[in-house]
């Protein structure tokens, strides 16, 4: 189905459902937008709308609950595929030291990869500024979903920097409880494929930083140098001298100033953003392959970031240096695939 056939169309529903989907063009960002909706007839404030811009890096730039947006998205930044909304980090979440890496005895350069803001080490992967393709959304009685995908092949703009033929697919599934995002990596080449995956959401603070609390199920934080690259040292937040990094109990965001990588996660527990003034919690969880969480709490900004990652910052270089446990670089053999998922689950007090 062509993009022209998609424009401005609602998806036909064969059965009556509180879920819906549509595909349209939003002039403000000059992009196709896939919208998934859930209408709660008893509690309209619990209704959910998700917006995904496949042509802008498959950015899930809209996550609206009732009339409240939870994702901070600047339209000018989104339109030029800069860092905003909820963008995709693959195959290198976060930073890469010296814009280069080694894997299985081969060296690869990322120096030709342009980055927004001119930050040389802030690679943030190779697909957030790519146009993705998408499949027809699917509506059932208990969910609405859509799959987007991007290919890494010789025709890709950054293939020389990551010459591993592959496909990354994302399936966004909206339920009554929230949004599940499942990634699927297929190795189409003849060599092992190294990767890490993450999402980079900018979460709005609707009641302000003083009334928004964060909680992370993490026992350790990674030390970083001046470029926010890992030193290989990991600090136990149970120890008194590192207690300032302990987020296992809720803490108000206005008391924090963070740009840190956490690890040693309790994978059966969720990270929580508690919007106390709104009587709502956003619980963020993931499959067991997600071993790290980046939390970014800048001073004076109307957002924070809680980024579940399958690996550490600079994972491919740490892996090459033998620090495989703390890097947790994932590898896929030729012809094989790998799947994991992130969950954004809502809970209401009101």
UniProtKB/TrEMBL annotation:
CDD domains found in the cross-reference section: Aldose_epim
A GO molecular function held by the record: aldose 1-epimerase activity
Gene3D superfamilies, alphabetized: 2.70.98.10
InterPro entries: Aldose_1/G6P_1-epimerase, Gal_mutarotase_sf_dom, GH-type_carb-bd
GO BP terms in the entry: galactose catabolic process via UDP-galactose, Leloir pathway; glucose metabolic process
Pfam family, one: Aldose_epim
Highest taxon, organism lineage: Bacteria
Region (Disordered): 1-21
Protein name: Aldose 1-epimerase
